Amino acid sequence: GQQLNQSPQSMFIQEGEDVSMNCTSSSIFNTWLWYKQDPGEGPVLLIALYKAGELTSNGRLTAQFGITRKDSFLNISASIPSDVGIYFCAGRLNYGQNFVFGPGTRLSVLP
Amino acid sequence: EPEVTQTPSHQVTQMGQEVILRCVPISNHLYFYWYRQILGQKVEFLVSFYNNEISEKSEIFDDQFSVERPDGSNFTLKIRSTKLEDSAMYFCASRLRTRGLYEQYFGPGTRLTVT
Questions:
Q1: For residue B70, is pLDDT > 90?
Q2: What pLDDT, in 10s, does the model give residues A56-108?
Q3: CB-CB neighbours of B1 under 10 Å
Q4: Which of A28, A99, B88, B99 could form a disulfide with A69 if both were Cys (CB 3.0 to 4.6 A apart)?
């Protein structure tokens, strides 16, 4: 089946730093969703992207739908301790409605 | 703010037993989903449901699994004869039926432990 790769797998940053992570695939996707998951909880939707090149913000978070439609990027500016968690990308292919999830990027924020 | 709810939060069962996981999707949503997440791994799609029937299902969703919307609010996942490898978090999700919008909202999950 289709695979999504996320990098980095994990990252440790200082509070206040900016964060960048990405999601890539060999397949073309028509929709990207970015989620954050805290331990023992369900994924929380952060941003949805629908068009190639689209740049969408949600507070300190900004996500982009890659021009090739095979990737997406998530940036977090001025990180704070509550940004700690696992960030998942999910992509929807040209057909169907279900999403393929990436393996996640684990973010740790050091005070 | 409306949210997806799931019960129970944790279910322990013996191998071979049947379990039913329950979800109440957001009230005006019409597409429903079940996902699972084995500990430490990614979220995996199981099944989508619309208009009282399955829209899509993955290879994981074999004959041991079934879904049902028994009334206007609940959406259930049944595992007929649980196996050890069914131990995972099971998430329900729902979305609006709005053309071109695919945002899925997840519940808090049910942790299933098969012993």
A1: no
A2: 999 999 999 999 999 999 999 999 999 999 999 999 986 666 889 999 999 99
A3: 4
A4: A28
Shortest distance between the Cα of B48 and any Cα of chain A, in A, equals: 7
Distance of CA A19 to the CA centre of its chain: 11
- Tokens encoding B20: 């039913």
Identify which of B84, B109, B93, B88 has the alpha carbon closest to the alpha carbon of residue B40: B88
Residue of A nearest to B6 (CA): A42
Strands B110-114 and B10-13: parallel
Query: Are A103 and B42 a contacting pair at CB < 8 A?
Result: yes
Distance of alpha carbon B64 from the chain centroid? 14
Average pLDDT over chain A reads 93
pLDDT at B48: 93
Is residue A17 classed as helix, strand or coil in its secondary structure?
A: coil
Of A62, A43, A44, A42, nearest in space to A54 by CA: A62
CB-based contact A101 B56, cutoff 8 Å:
no
Q: Strand B75-79 relative to strand B65-68: parallel, antiparallel, unpaired?
A: antiparallel
CB contact under 8 A, B45 and A99: yes
Smallest Cα distance from A111 to chain B, Å? 25
